Amino acid sequence: MAFISNAYTDVGIKKKTNQDSALLMEAQTDLGDVALCVICDGMGGLAEGELASAHVIKAFSAWFKNELKEMLYNGFSPVDLEKSWSNIIYNKNTELMLYTRENNIAKGLGTTVAALLLYDSKYYILNVGDSRIYRHNGELVQLTEDQTFINREVKLGNMTPEQAATDPRRSVLLQCVGASQFVEPEYEYGSFSKEDAFILCSDGFRHEVSHKELEDAFMPHKLKSDAKIAQIQKQIVELNKKRMETDNITVITIKAI
Question: Helix (H, G, I), strand (E, B), or coil: what is residue 78?
Fold first, then answer.
């Protein structure tokens, strides 16, 4: 299957720098088309969050260019991919923590990571933090689980979803790359079909819009081209800004055709 896609990012209405980073790479091979999408939402003072997110994005870009081809031709299992991606996460976590110590960054720096690989009608997902990946095949389904304080409290029954939506601690992460002593990525695997779409986003993209609004906006039949995807993404970004979202806003949308 081939893909149509687009990545869109906006600094938002408050912050001076965009600490989100996004990666969208596609390749045609003898074995079929393959696509990699990654969103990282950086955290840290001044440009440090931007540094953290870009650092991880560069590592996934290098992996796509240098390692994926051999994995495709050798045939890989989910376990093989998990091992390869985990090495990226562990190495970048160590490097960013070392950078924090060497530069005396008091609050530290870090980044979320949401990565999606599409190949041979199968999807592979890695998640650290609270950037999200959705699948849309007529119904919008969240494939990742937010690794946040409030999500844990909801699961424990200490907070309702309605309370969590407005709780000031909604951005407190349980782990992220660069600021956690130990990072354990979560993985998901599954199959997809022609006309299925995937949406990756930083948390700034979905705080001020409802699940239903996202579901309606990204109905697969509306995603007719790269340009149309970009138009829909911009509409939702501007809606977030109109509703006074203060964070950076980033989204990647990709549809199998």
Answer: helix
